[in-house]
TrEMBL record:
Comp. bias intervals (Polar residues): 146-164
Protein name, entry field: Uncharacterized protein
Keywords: Membrane, Transmembrane, Transmembrane helix
Bias-annotated ranges (Pro residues): 1-16, 242-260
Region (Disordered): 1-27, 138-164, 239-274
Transmembrane regions listed in the UniProt entry: 34-57, 279-301
Source organism, top-level taxon: Bacteria
Length: 302
């Protein structure tokens, strides 16, 4: 008879324990506790809000700042034209410029040919910037030259060649910024007295008469004749040169002829001199001698 399998016992899961009634009661108490605290907090918030609203409602309202009213513009009286009696009158005087004089640099009104003079008009009064107009009048043919007719100062240059006496009147007419007819003027007179005669003092050759030159004679420049600067009348009467004696030529020395039968000796050849040694000492020789002496001393010691 076949063998029947023996059934093995199987393990059964443990039976679930029944819930304890005490645990459910504690969970219910915790939920009620949190609900109570929530109600308390909400109530506190409502109370604080009510207090704040109450205080704001009881606070007195701020009064508005007073509004500044603009000041009305004063009324301008109408312009009225009044003629006849009762009209106010006033007078005033406008003073124009005044020229007090013309300064000269270098000073002195006496000039020579080619001299330069800087002219400056001294002006006071008036208003604003002055306008200058320089003019020249002369009793001679050449009026000279102005560096500018509208500048102040200006420079006047005398003619480069003058033979006879001559004078120049240089005038500056000044107008201030107001213009119109308010002007003033001032002038200066320069003159040339003529060429310097013989043996008179001078400054340059242009001061002297024709044929004379301005030369230093004993420390003073005078117009003299260059051939006789010591002659006071420039006649050179005592300055005629005396004829110098002629020098006769000296006779030349001719070589004497050599007599017949005598032959002239030819010059002997020049013997070369031996070259002498240079004075002094030789550096290699000195070093060699010193080294030998040192070796001798070392041999004696050791």
């Amino acid at each position: 008879m076949p063998e029947q399998p023996i059934p093995t016992p199987t393990s059964q899961p443990p039976a679930a324990k029944p819930a304890s009634p005490a645990g459910g009661a504690s969970a219910g108490k915790g939920e009620k506790k949190w609900l109570l605290w929530g109600l308390i907090g909400f109530t506190v918030i409502l109370l604080i809000t009510a207090v704040v609203l109450f205080l704001q409602l009881r606070k007195p309202a701020e009064e508005p700042a007073p509004r500044v009213r603009p000041t009305p513009t004063p009324a301008i009286p109408p312009v009225q034209e009044v003629t006849g009696a009762g009209v106010c009158e006033t007078t005033f005087t406008v003073t124009g410029p005044t020229c007090t004089g013309v300064t000269i640099d270098p000073t002195g009104t006496s000039v020579s040919a080619g001299d330069d003079r800087e002219l400056t008009a001294e002006v006071t009064g008036g208003s604003g910037t002055y306008t200058h107009e320089w003019t020249i009048t002369s009793d001679g043919a050449d009026e000279g030259d102005l560096s500018s007719t509208t500048a102040n100062p200006t420079t006047w240059t005398a003619p480069g060649s003058l033979d006879e006496s001559q004078s120049w009147t240089i005038t500056d007419t000044i107008t201030d910024a107001v213009g119109e007819d308010i002007t003033t003027s001032c002038s200066v007179i320069l003159n040339f007295t003529g060429l310097v005669a013989c043996f008179d003092t001078c400054d340059t050759d242009l001061d002297c008469e024709e044929g004379l030159s301005c030369t230093d004679v004993a420390g003073t420049f005078r117009c003299v004749d260059a051939n006789c600067p010591e002659d006071v009348d420039c006649s050179c009467a005592d300055a005629s040169p005396s004829p110098s004696p002629s020098v006769s030529p000296s006779p030349g020395v001719s070589p004497s002829p050599t007599p017949p039968g005598i032959t002239q000796a030819s010059p002997s050849p020049r013997v070369a001199q031996p070259e002498l040694p240079e004075a002094g000492f030789s550096a290699p020789l000195v070093i060699g001698v010193a080294g030998g002496i040192l070796l001798v001393i070392l041999g004696l010691l050791f």
